[in-house]
Structure formats: structure tokens, C-alpha cells
């Protein structure tokens, strides 16, 4: 069971034992009255910490040997934490005690204690000794107590409360006139401390004081080196553009460990209105949210110098809260510089409904150091360092926190600047990409227009070439016929022949002009639809009669495949006749001699009629097939081979089919020595009038 000595017990200690006034001289401290001695056999002995004294008399303790051993430890020890533990072992073994403890008086929040135990396996008793010793070490006087339990018998209120040690001899160490620690020798059984023991410990305390000062100096040097290393690592991380979360973690971990606090946070402020981030003299609470960006929590430490136990209770941390909900944050925002609170009493009082955020919890963490993160008068957040015991924040600790704060602020500003630059670059890149895409579209549109212009020029050239051929040939025949008719001796038969030529060529020119006009009217949708019910079988029969006689001279055969029952169409008869006429004329013009042209009529689903016209001939190339329904477009070699035509027939057919709300398609399949060309027209069986 752990037992702590209260202040009243401490007063009893000073009354029961010999208290050596630190103001007395060295000679006075060595004078010990003989009545302090008592019989070591008058009280029971604690078995856990019993240690057998050395075989040689303790009077033979050599002060010079102790001084030499302590000096060797101070000179050779590379770690200040282990030096005091080694010195405690030297003194404990030299005096033959059960435990030796050396406490260091510093400005740190926790008292540092280096210890040595004769029985290192009694860990429970060691913990009890350390817990109970804290009050004794806090006294401001030297103590020589033969039997602690007997002298405090009136103060013990419970029979179960026992002390882990009985005899105590404590001597304070002074360096340059100031107390910097204490040496305590403990025995588990009552012991009357001899004069030479007190004198030797008093003499040795000067050397231990020097060792403590050296240890403190080494700790200060190591601490400053740790500070510089932390600042250097932060600077290098910022220069290397390390990610901000990693910089924040490095900063808060390094600062909290360097200052030996229990917990640390990096708090960021997210403002509702960014203009409120600028510090001003206006007494108002900004609408901002406090967000915990990074947190560090002390784990169970494992160091050579023991630290008195402290509460390890965890605080319920809220990930974020409003500034208006925490009076402490409001006070920190209105305060210039770091906010230092040494204990719970210094925390600002809560004013309903505003309290203190659970993250700070003064009951669990009474000491707080709150350093602002700011850049150019813009408040970015805070570094919060907390400790579970009251402590005074030293100037070098505040300075380190402010340096780390400046580094974090620079990292935040750098990250935000880089983010803004990246966002601006991405925005400009997106705009440039859109501009390039727009330029590419404009280029593509321009290219297509140029291609269309080239195509139109080519078609115009073809049209002019075709028109020239189609006009000159009839005109030439007409001119010759006129000249021959002027001959006086021309016979009546010859005159009739030339008149027939004139009439035929005039009709050809008239048909060309009519086709051009009809095509223009169809393209501009100026031709009305004249609906009427027609018998498709009768229309095809009447239309194909002239072709039998005309194609017979060429050796062409016409096959017609019609349904057995009659098909009635509600359509425009003139347009239907012109479609069939142009397709049959085109098939007869481009069919091989002695071949067969087939016309098939079928009724499709969806109230549609399919007209399929197939012929064998030179065919249409794959490259020219998509363009055969364009105006003035003729296959290569047709003009050179003197195949009559203007390139308007199929264009007129397509316009007429569309005029009847139908579709037309063409295929040309290569076979052995020829092509099978097929035109398929789909027409609605009941065409509705479109206004």
C-alpha cells in the first residue's frame, strides 16, 4: 500500500529528528549530540529492504575515495541521467544502507530523483519508498532520524498504514550558495546515525552538489541542442515542402517531448468570414471554429532518472468547437503573445453559456501554454501545451514554443500559398485547355468548311463539265440540222429527219432545265404533296411497258416480282412515277448487255412498301458509294465513256423519296467479272399530309 507523509507528519519529522540548520557552518553541521543514538534492536526489521553492512567498519569510509569515485562518474558518464544513479549506488554501498536517493531541485514541474536500492528485486517496496519520499525530499532542512515510525507514532491514524523505511539521513547539496538537491540515506530498520557518517555525508555533499550542477548543465546543453535540432528539422521540412500534416506532427511531437509535458495540440481556426482572421482592437468574438489538427499524448516514460508518479487520466477531446463556446480561446485571441497558466486558479472564469472547451479540462491539466499561430497580424490558430501538474513556464520554454509557432505559421502560409498557386495554375490550365479545345473545334469547323468549299468547287467543275457536254452536244446537233434544212435541194425525207433531230434535242434541253428546277423546288420544300390512292401493281405495269421495247434493242431483260394481291398506296402519284422512271432509266443506262434487271415489290412490317431494283454492271466503287445521291455527282469514267447523263437523276430520286417520307439505300457487291448493284426504296403505305 502506498503511503504519503502529510505536512503535519513533516512537522513531526522535524521535531522528532535532529534537524541541521542549513544556515549553520560546516563545523556546526558535523556536531551530532550523542543522545540521538538508539538501540537498533528495539524495533522490528523490514525484511524486504534489509541489507548486510560491509565487513569493514564503516568508520573506515574514505572521503577521498568517495570523492575520486564521484569525480570519475561525472567525468566518464556520457548521459547525465545515469550519472546520479551511479553516484547513488556508490554512496549506498559505501554507507551500507538499504537505499540511497539523490533528488534534484530544478524549475521543472516534477522533482527528479535518482535512486539505488540494495535489493533491486523488491519493486513494490521501491515504489512505496519513492511515493513516501516525495514529502521528505521537499523539506528545506537536513534531517537525521533514527526511527521514523516510533517518532511519528502519535500521527499514525490507521494500523494498516506502515512506512517502507525507518531511519533517514538527509543532507541538502549547495552549489554557489544555492540548494540544488539533496542526498538521502534510508534504512528499513531503526538506526542511530554515527557522527562520522553524518560528517562523511556532509563532506561528500559538496562533491555531489558539483555533480548535480554538472548534470543540470549537461541537461541544459542537451535541452538547447534538442531545441536547435527541432527548429533545424522544422526548417528543413519547410524548405523541402513536406506535407503540412507531417510538419505539424513533427512540430507538436518535438515540442511536447522537449518541454516534457503531458499533452500537446495544434489548433487551427476556420473563419466564417476570412476578414475576421486579422487581429483588431475591436472587442468582438470572431465567428470561427477551432479544429484539432494534430495531437500528441505522452506515453509511459522509460528514463534513467525516475519521475514522481502523476495522474494518467485521459481527457475527452472534442475534435472541434466554436470560439464562442470557449472563454479560454476568446481570452487567448484578445491577448497579444503567449498565454501562460501555471495552475487551475489562473484559468479565466466561465460565463454562462460560455465555458471552457473539454479539450483544456483545467481539473486534469492545470498548467497550460497557449502560443498563437499568426502571420502578418493574421491569426491562424494556436499551439497548446498542457501538463497534469502545476508548473511555471520558463522563458526558454516559451521562446521555443514561439519559435516553433513561427515555423508552423510559415508552413501554413506556404502551404496555403502553394495551394492557391496550384489552384490558379489548374484554373489557368483548364482555361487554356478549353481555349485549345475551342480552337481545335474552330479549326475543325474551318477545315470542314474548306473541304466543303473544295468539294463544291469540284462539283461545280464537274457540273460545268457535264453541263457543257450536255448543252454542247444537243446544240451542235441542232446547228447541223438547221444548216442542212437551209439546203435548197434537200429531199422531204431528209428534211423530216433533221426536224426530228431538232425536236429531240430541244426536248432534251427542256428536260435538263426541268430537272434543275424540280430539284431546287424539292430542296426548298416548295412542292406540295398531292395525295391519292393508287394501285401499285397497275402503276408499275403501265410504267414498265415502254422499257420492254426500248431495252430489247440492247438485249436487256426486265423481270418484275409483284405480290399476288393488289397493293393500294395513299401517296403522291407523280413523285412515285418519277422515282420509278429515274431508277429504271439509271439501271438500263449502267447495265451490262444481255443482262437482267429485276424489280421486286414486297410489303414490310409497319405499313411500309419496299421497292428493290437490282442490275448487273460496272458497279459503284466503295469510295463513291456514299456520294452517289449528291447533285452533279457521277462515277469516274462515265463522261469519258460517253455515258449520257447530268448527275441529277439519283439526287432527284432521293429528294422525291424524302418528299414521300421514305428512305433509299444503295449497295454494290462485286461478283465474278461484274457488280450487283441494288437500290432499295422504303415508302409508307399511307402517307399523311403534312401542313
In short:
The chain is α+β, with helices and mostly antiparallel strands and 691 residues long. It folds into four domains: 7-222, Beta-Lactamase (2-Layer Sandwich); 241-393, Beta-Lactamase; 421-522, Signal transduction histidine kinase, dimerisation/phosphotransfer (DHp) domain (Helix Hairpins); 527-684, Heat Shock Protein 90, CATH 3.30.565. Helix content is 44%, strand content 20%.
Describe it:
The protein is of the alpha+beta class and 691 residues long. The chain has four domains: 7-222, 2-Layer Sandwich (Beta-Lactamase), CATH 3.30.450.40; 241-393, Beta-Lactamase (2-Layer Sandwich), CATH 3.30.450; 421-522, Signal transduction histidine kinase, dimerisation/phosphotransfer (DHp) domain (Helix Hairpins), CATH 1.10.287; 527-684, Heat Shock Protein 90 (2-Layer Sandwich), CATH 3.30.565. It is 44% helix and 20% strand. The chain is built from 14 helices and 20 strands. α3 (63-76) packs parallel to α7 (195-239), α11 (492-523) packs across α14 (649-659) and α12 packs parallel to α13. The two termini are 108 Å apart.
Rg calculated over all Cα atoms: 57 Å
Instruction: Provide the CATH topology of the largest domain.
Output: Beta-Lactamase
Main sheet strand line-up: 1-4-5-6-2-3-9
- Number of helical regions: 14
The helix fraction, in percent, is 40-55%
Strand content: 15-25%
In the CATH hierarchy, what is the class of the largest domain? Alpha Beta
Please indicate the count of domains: 4
Amino acid at each position: 500500500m502506498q503511503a504519503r507523509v502529510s505536512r503535519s507528519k513533516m512537522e513531526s519529522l522535524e521535531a522528532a529528528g535532529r534537524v541541521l540548520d542549513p544556515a549553520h557552518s560546516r563545523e556546526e553541521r558535523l556536531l551530532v549530540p550523542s543522545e540521538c543514538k538508539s538501540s537498533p534492536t528495539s524495533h522490528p526489521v523490514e525484511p524486504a529492504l534489509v541489507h548486510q553492512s560491509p565487513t569493514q567498519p564503516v568508520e573506515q569510509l574514505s572521503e577521498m575515495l568517495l570523492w575520486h569515485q564521484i569525480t570519475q562518474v561525472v567525468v566518464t558518464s556520457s548521459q547525465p541521467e545515469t550519472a546520479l544513479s551511479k553516484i547513488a549506488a556508490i554512496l549506498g554501498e559505501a554507507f551500507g544502507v538499504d537505499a540511497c536517493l539523490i533528488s534534484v531541485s530544478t524549475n521543472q514541474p516534477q522533482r527528479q530523483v535518482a535512486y539505488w536500492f540494495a535489493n533491486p528485486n523488491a519493486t513494490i517496496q521501491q515504489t512505496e519508498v519513492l511515493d513516501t519520499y516525495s514529502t521528505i525530499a521537499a523539506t528545506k532542512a537536513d534531517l537525521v532520524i533514527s526511527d521514523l515510525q516510533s517518532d511519528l507514532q502519535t500521527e499514525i491514524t490507521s494500523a494498516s498504514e506502515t512506512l517502507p523505511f525507518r531511519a533517514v539521513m538527509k543532507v541538502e547539496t549547495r552549489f554557489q550558495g544555492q540548494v540544488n538537491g539533496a542526498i538521502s540515506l534510508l534504512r528499513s530498520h531503526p538506526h542511530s546515525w554515527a557522527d562520522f557518517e553524518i560528517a562523511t555525508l556532509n563532506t561528500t555533499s559538496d562533491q555531489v552538489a558539483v555533480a548535480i550542477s554538472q548534470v543540470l548543465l549537461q541537461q541544459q546543453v542537451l535541452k538547447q541542442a534538442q531545441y536547435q535540432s527541432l527548429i533545424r528539422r522544422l526548417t528543413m521540412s519547410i524548405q523541402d515542402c513536406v506535407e503540412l500534416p507531417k510538419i505539424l506532427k513533427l512540430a507538436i511531437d518535438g515540442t511536447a517531448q522537449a518541454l516534457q509535458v503531458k499533452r500537446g495540440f495544434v489548433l487551427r481556426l476556420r473563419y466564417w468570414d476570412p476578414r475576421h482572421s486579422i487581429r483588431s482592437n475591436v472587442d468582438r468574438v470572431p465567428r470561427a471554429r477551432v479544429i484539432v489538427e494534430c495531437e500528441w499524448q505522452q506515453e509511459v516514460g522509460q528514463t534513467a532518472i525516475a519521475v514522481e508518479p502523476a495522474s494518467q487520466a485521459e481527457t475527452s477531446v472534442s475534435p472541434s468547437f466554436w470560439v464562442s463556446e470557449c472563454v479560454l480561446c476568446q481570452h487567448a485571441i484578445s491577448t497579444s503573445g503567449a498565454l501562460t497558466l501555471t495552475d487551475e486558479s489562473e484559468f479565466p472564469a466561465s460565463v454562462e453559456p460560455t465555458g471552457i472547451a473539454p479539450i483544456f479540462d483545467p481539473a486534469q491539466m492545470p498548467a497550460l501554454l497557449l502560443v498563437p499561430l499568426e502571420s502578418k497580424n493574421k491569426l491562424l490558430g494556436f499551439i497548446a501545451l498542457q501538463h497534469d501538474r502545476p508548473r511555471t513556464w520558463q522563458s526558454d520554454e516559451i521562446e521555443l514554443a514561439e519559435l516553433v509557432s513561427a515555423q508552423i505559421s510559415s508552413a501554413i502560409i506556404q502551404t496555403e500559398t502553394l495551394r492557391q498557386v496550384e489552384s490558379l495554375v489548374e484554373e489557368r490550365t483548364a482555361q487554356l485547355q478549353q481555349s485549345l479545345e475551342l480552337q481545335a473545334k474552330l479549326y475543325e469547323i474551318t477545315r470542314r468548311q474548306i473541304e466543303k468549299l473544295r468539294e463544291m468547287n469540284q462539283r461545280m467543275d464537274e457540273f460545268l463539265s457535264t453541263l457543257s457536254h450536255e448543252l454542247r452536244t444537243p446544240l451542235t446537233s441542232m446547228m447541223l440540222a438547221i444548216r442542212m434544212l437551209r439546203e435548197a435541194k434537200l429531199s422531204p425525207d431528209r428534211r423530216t429527219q433533221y426536224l426530228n433531230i431538232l425536236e429531240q434535242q430541244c426536248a432534251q434541253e427542256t428536260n435538263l432545265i426541268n430537272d434543275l428546277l424540280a430539284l431546287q423546288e424539292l430542296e426548298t420544300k416548295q412542292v406540295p404533296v398531292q395525295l391519292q390512292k393508287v394501285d401499285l401493281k397497275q402503276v408499275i405495269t403501265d410504267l414498265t411497258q415502254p422499257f420492254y421495247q426500248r431495252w430489247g434493242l440492247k438485249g436487256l431483260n426486265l423481270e418484275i416480282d409483284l405480290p399476288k394481291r393488289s397493293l393500294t398506296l395513299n401517296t403522291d402519284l407523280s413523285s412515285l412515277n418519277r422515282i420509278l422512271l429515274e431508277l429504271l432509266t439509271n439501271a438500263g443506262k449502267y447495265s451490262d448487255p444481255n443482262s437482267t434487271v429485276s424489280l421486286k415489290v414486297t410489303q414490310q412490317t409497319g405499313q411500309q412498301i419496299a421497292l428493290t431494283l437490282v442490275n448487273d454492271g460496272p458497279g459503284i466503287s466503295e469510295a463513291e458509294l456514299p456520294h452517289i445521291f449528291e447533285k452533279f455527282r457521277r462515277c469516274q469514267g462515265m463522261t469519258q465513256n460517253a455515258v449520257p447523263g447530268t448527275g441529277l437523276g439519283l439526287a432527284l430520286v432521293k429528294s422525291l423519296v424524302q418528299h414521300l417520307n421514305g428512305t433509299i439505300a444503295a449497295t454494290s457487291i462485286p461478283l465474278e467479272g461484274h457488280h450487283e448493284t441494288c437500290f432499295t426504296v422504303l415508302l409508307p403505305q399511307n402517307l399523311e399530309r403534312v401542313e
